[in-house]
Specification:
The chain has 128 residues and is an alpha+beta fold. It has one domain (2-123): Alpha-Beta Plaits (2-Layer Sandwich). It has 4 helices and 5 strands, in the order βαββαββαα. A 5-stranded mixed beta sheet has the order 4-1-3-2-5, sandwiched between helices. A hairpin with a 3-residue loop joins strand 2 (37-42) and strand 3 (46-54).
């Protein structure tokens, strides 16, 4: 069964911005090995990520993210079963956006958060 998680978090204050590129590269390798797909969005201080794959693998990855000292304030906006992958061409698509793009999304939950995120995706310049 496919499963998805959409979350937001903050870049820890002690972590340099160049580390975000390292995070994206590491995610691509790990996700490909676990058949996890998704998109990572970063606005200079906050992450928003949608992950999809096998439920156990996605939930284990979320536990790893929660324990990663480069993230703080990990907040799950939506999680649940998924009929089909949305981002099958990406082991981890990555892009940067301006701060306003994540302002509204970060206060939503459930299907409202998922709809807002889905509406944002077509406007992103994603680097696979």
């Amino acid at each position: 069964m496919l499963f998805e998680v959409l979350y937001v978090s903050q870049l820890s204050p002690h972590v340099a911005l160049h580390a975000v590129g390292d995070i994206a590269r590491q995610c691509r390798v790990f996700n490909k090995a676990k058949n996890i797909t998704g998109i990572l969005i970063f606005d200079g201080s906050r992450f928003c990520e949608q992950l999809e794959g096998n439920e156990a693998d996605v939930l284990q990855l979320m536990q790893t993210i929660r324990q990663d000292p480069r993230h703080t304030g990990v907040h799950v906006l939506h999680q649940g079963a998924l009929d089909k992958r949305r981002f099958c061409r990406f082991s981890m698509g990555y892009t940067m956006v301006d701060e306003q793009a994540l302002d509204a999304l970060s206060v939503l939950t459930g299907h409202d958060a998922l709809r807002t995120f889905s509406a944002l995706v077509p406007h992103l310049d994603l680097d696979s």
